[in-house]
Structures are given as C-alpha cells and as structure tokens.
Amino acid sequence: MKILILSLLTLILATRPALAQTLELGYSGFFKHMKTVQKAKVEQAELGFYLSQADGGGLCTILAGGVRVDGEQRGEVTLLPHGQFILPYDKQLDLDKAVVALELAEQEQCDISIQIQAQLEGGRLELVQLRQVRDEMQTLLAKMAGWPGRYFVPEIRGLHLAPATEGGALTVDGVKTESGRLSLGDEQLAGEGSLVLPAVRITPWI
Q1: What are phi and psi of 35, to 5 degrees?
Q2: What digits encode the pLDDT tens for the residues 35-88?
Q3: First to last CA, the chain
Q4: Who's near 159: CB < 8 A, 6+ residues apart?
Q5: Which of 95, 111, 96, 97 is nearest to 10 (CA)?
Q6: Cα 95 to Cα 128: distance, rounded to the nearest angstrom
Q7: Rounded to 5 degrees, what angle do the CA atoms 24, 28, 30 make?
Q8: 129 CB contacts (<8 Å, ≥6 apart)?
Q9: Distance of CA 95 to the CA centre of its chain
Q10: Whole-prediction pTM value?
Q11: Where does the signal sequence lie (predicted)?
Q12: DSSP string, 152-179
C-alpha cells in the first residue's frame, strides 16, 4: 500500500537506523499523536501507524511486536494485514517511558509513517457519511499541524477509497473498479446519494 507522503499529512518520528531485525521506538512519540486524536473528538478519522522502507520501496514487513518497560512486556502490538500496527493508548506507558519493539522480517532501514485515515464497514454508505469523514480528516489534519501550522493546512478536496483487505477488489454498486481504487472529489461527494461498497480504508485527497 502506498503511503501518502506530505509534510503535513505524514509525520516521521525520530528513530535510530533500523539495521537489526528488532526495531525499538519510544512509545511517548506515538502516545502524543494518539492523544491528539482523542482531543480532536473525531468519530471515524484516525491515525494509522506504518513502517515504511527508507528507500521508498514500500512497507517493511513486521512479524511481531510488543510494548516493553525495562525489558518487561507491558502491552500488545496488533498487526493488520495491510501493514498497519496498532498500539494501546495508555498514559502509564507514556509515564514509564515504554519502548515499542517491532520484529522485522528482514534487516532493512525503516521509517515510521503516520497516515490520517478512516476505515468503514461494507454496505450502503450515504454521501453525507463520507462528507463527515472528509470533515473529520480536515479537523485532524489541522490538529496535527499545531500552531501556527494550522493556518497553512491545505484543504482536503476529496477522498481516496481502497479495499480494507490488501489485494482485495473494490466494487461500487456491484461493479468492479478497473484500478481497484476509487477517488471522489468534493463535487462527487455533494448531494444526498449513496454508494454500495465493501469494507474500505479511506485516505484524504489533498
């Protein structure tokens, strides 16, 4: 899956070079961003954490992960098929200076990418719901930019939809899309219509 690389959309956390099979990252950096989502009070927009190859060749493969404090396992890392990993939201882990340990399939240099996204279940989706997702993403984008960056945040002009399952097909009202993805601009999101879609992962169109 291609991660959208934009200075305001994708944030790179400071990490040490990952040349060993186990990559260790400070939990506090992740907690800060998860806390931003909580403060934004959004219902569907979220931040997705990914591990990207430093040379732009795609995603690094994560075999397993855990959250540790002084070498002791204190939390689980949930791995999703499309490459995202999910961390527990726990202030105590932040206070305890926990470490996120990710076991990689290969020895390669990786960066952390943070993607603004939403994941919706399949079925009939009203356009008003998709507009709400777009508006929440705009809110979250501004929150991530901070001050004074929020005054220079670009306007989201639509949504990109992809199958929630990596390698899956995207159908719209029962018709398979040629590219396997769907982009909807603001004009297409207007009105009171609806679309029948499978489970989708949505990212903003800047």
Answers
A1: -65, -35
A2: 999 999 999 999 999 999 999 889 999 999 999 999 999 999 999 989 999 999
A3: 18
A4: 130, 133, 134, 183, 184, 189, 202, 203, 204, 205
A5: 111
A6: 40
A7: 80
A8: 120
A9: 24
A10: 0.84
A11: 1-20
A12: GPPPP-EEEEEESSTT---EETTEE-SS
List Cα–Cα distances, 55 to 49, 67, 100, 111, in angstroms. Answer: 18, 27, 22, 9
Contact 115, 52 (CB under 8 A): no
In angstroms, rounded to a whole number, what is the distance separating the alpha carbons of residues 19 and 54?
11
Which residues does residue 22 pair with via DSSP β-bridges, in sequence order?
103
Judge whether 202 and 160 are in contact, CB under 8 Å. Answer: yes
Please identify every stretch of the chain with a pLDDT value under 50, giving residue numbers as ranges. Answer: 1-20
Angle at 21 between CA 80 and CA 23, to 5 degrees: 70
Q: What is the torsion angle, in degrees rounded to the nearest 10, for the CA atoms of residue 59, residue 65, residue 67 and residue 69?
A: -110
Contacts of 96 (CB under 8 A, 6+ apart): 69, 74
Residue 33, burial from CB neighbour count under 10 angstroms (0-12, 13-18, 19+): middle
Residue 63, amino acid: L
